[in-house]
Amino acid sequence: MTAAFSDMDAVRTLLAEQPSVHETAVAAAAARNGQLTKPPGALGRLEDIAIWYAGWRGVERPTVERPQIIVFAGNHGVAAQGVSAFPAEVTAQMVANFQHGGAAINQLAKTFGAKLDVHALSLEVPTADFTQDAAMSEVEVIEALSVGWSAVDAEADVLVVGEMGIGNTTSAAALAMALLGGAAGDWAGRGTGVDDAGLEIKTRVVNEGVTLHAGHGDGLEMLRRLGGRELAGMAGAIMRARHLRIPVLLDGFICTAAALTLEKTRAGALDHCTASHLSAESAHGRLLDALGKTPLMALDLRLGEGSGAALSLGVLKGAVACLSGMATFAEAGVSDA
Ligand SMILES: Cc1cc2ncn([C@H]3O[C@H](COP(=O)(O)O)[C@@H](O)[C@H]3O)c2cc1C
Ligand SMILES: O=C(O)c1cccnc1
């Protein structure tokens, strides 16, 4: 479908008009949860996540049958400064790997029964080096947001967004610093595994980019200035999911930084999102704290591609199966407390 916006203000308007959770379904699912054959609260966070999911799907007893994973790929001008342990060609090479089924995300998508779509966004045209200029023009960021918006399958019942883009932990760190404050050293981590010299370059690059761009606009404007096409693709897909009431599982540091740009443009823009995991990228925990989101798992993943969120599809499916499939005390003839 064609995107619902052609400029940044139209995106802001869409964010202002987004639907809210279905309160009646939340209340019904919570009431049902309270009657299920288990001690109250015994399923821990599975109970919260199932009720959250029911609320966004608008039904008391939902199912998870059509998960969609979308991986967006983009290249970054700052990669030329030596901020990654890998060369920029790896982005396109990994896109080919996704297409041939050889990446981690392919295996996880298959394992959890998810449809996997890959969108390579103008890989031959890296974004501008954000220490010199805005990473993207308005036309470019709108194009990437539109690809994300249009990539969401309206029939999906849960969405995972992931990314591939050498240099994008630098972009994510710059976005976090510009939107949340702190020092570059608080946000720059090792990404693909940069050594101490690489981390020093990365910290300087983040600092220079934020010094040039911070304070010149809201979350969306920072996405344009410091982000990348794959981050904008993820942001566009997260927005579309909200309009379709499709719950989203956020992945690691980069995905969360992309999501942050929406929250900083419109508070509440991520209410339909749950944090799937805590990445080993050092600043992810700080980023999640700022968003008030507690991750479901901590497995020391530092991959991206949507991998942690894909794994948490298993947790979500388990949670929803219990809410919708368990017997109540009355149905099972089990004595209540
Ligand atoms: C083979 C390979 C596969 C990957 N899959 C995800 N990433 C991850 O690493 C990159 C971010 O780290 P940095 O900012 O240090 O470049 C992103 O592409 C991210 O998706 C990969 C990286 C590599 C090398
Ligand atoms: O948490 C992530 O998203 C991440 C961390 C390191 C490298 N790539 C992705």
Label this structure with key terms.
single chain; 337 residues; alpha/beta; Rossmann fold; five-stranded parallel sheet; globular; binds alpha-ribazole-5'-phosphate; binds nicotinic acid; EC 2.4.2.21; Nict_dMeBzImd_PRibTrfase_N; Nict_dMeBzImd_PRibTrfase_sf; cobalamin biosynthesis; nicotinate-nucleotide-dimethylbenzimidazole phosphoribosyltransferase activity
What does this structure look like?
Helix content is 50%, strand content 8%. The N and C termini lie far apart (52 Å). It has one domain (65-317): Rossmann fold (3-Layer(aba) Sandwich), CATH 3.40.50. The protein is built from 15 helices and five strands. The protein has a five-stranded parallel sheet, sandwiched between helices. The protein has helices spanning 8-16, 23-35, 45-57, 89-99, 104-111, 138-151, 168-180, 184-187, 196-213, 219-226, 229-243, 253-263, 284-291, 307-325, 329-332, and strands spanning 67-73, 115-120, 158-164, 248-250, 273-275. The structure holds alpha-ribazole-5'-phosphate (RBZ) and nicotinic acid. Alpha-ribazole-5'-phosphate binds next to helix 4, strand 3 and helix 7. Keywords: Cobalamin biosynthesis, Glycosyltransferase, Transferase. Its EC number is 2.4.2.21. It catalyses: 5,6-dimethylbenzimidazole + nicotinate beta-D-ribonucleotide = alpha-ribazole 5'-phosphate + nicotinate + H(+).
